[in-house]
Amino acid sequence: MHGHPTDKLVAGAVIGGILTAALVVLMVWLDFPSDRGYGAAVRLAVPAALSALLLFPRPILHRTLLRERRDPGLLDEDLNLLLVGRALGLVGGIIFGISLASEIL
Could you tell me the pTM of the whole model? Predict the structure, then answer.
């Protein structure tokens, strides 16, 4: 019926990695924020923060405030592993995005 909880970990890592890498490449290509006024840390923090704002609110809300309204088959363990997977994907996506941006651009 439902998959193993590890499936949520892997799915979160893949989604987080793809989204974060795409945002890093897009922000570097658009030169936002400009490399003249900001350092490399800020240029990577902006796509990471944007990616975190897109990845984390829904699982955190289902874990805390919307606990009664979520699917009864979705366990706390599944949500915890989903959050861990998305965090790992965010870190991996930054690294992958940097390598993609340096090769493409």
Answer: 0.90
